[in-house]
Amino acid sequence: MLTAFVLIQAEPAKIAQIAQTIANLPNVAEVYSVTGDFDIIAVLRLAEYEHLAEVVPESLARIDGIRRTNTILAFRRYSAQDLKAAWDIGVA
């Protein structure tokens, strides 16, 4: 399973509409409106790397009002349990 984070700059008046449209796309797990240089972050969960091209440039980036995207791929996922185990190493 591949996880990708797509950072999106959008036209301000269309942020809510764009976020809802993205949330309805296949392979989109979560969508957030955020502060900073980007307006929206979409979390994608994909079975294969090749599906990324279908979701981002061929679908998501073509939504009216999206100005720019920046995609970040995750190497590894850490949970609270993983982090707790890492800190417990060597503790008696």
Give the structure's gist in a few sentences.
The protein is an alpha+beta fold and 92 residues long.
- Our measurement of the CA-to-CA distance between the termini, rounded to an integer number of angstroms, reads 35 Å
Largest sheet, spatial ordering of strands: 2-3-1-4
The low-confidence runs, each spanning 5 or more residues with pLDDT under 50, are none
Global outline: globular
Structural class: alpha+beta
C-alpha Rg (nearest Å) = 16 Å
Q: What is the element string, with H for helices and E for strands?
A: EHEEHEH
| Share in β-strands | 25-35%
Mean pLDDT: 90
Number of strands: 4
Helix content: 25-40%
User: Major β-sheet, in short?
Assistant: 4 strands, antiparallel
Number of helices: 3
What are the defining features of this structure?
alpha+beta, 92 residues
Describe the structure.
This protein is an alpha+beta fold. It has a 4-stranded antiparallel sheet, with helices on one face. A hairpin with a 6-residue loop joins strand 2 and strand 3. The longest helix is centred in the first third of the chain and has 9 residues. The radius of gyration is 16 Å and the shape is globular.
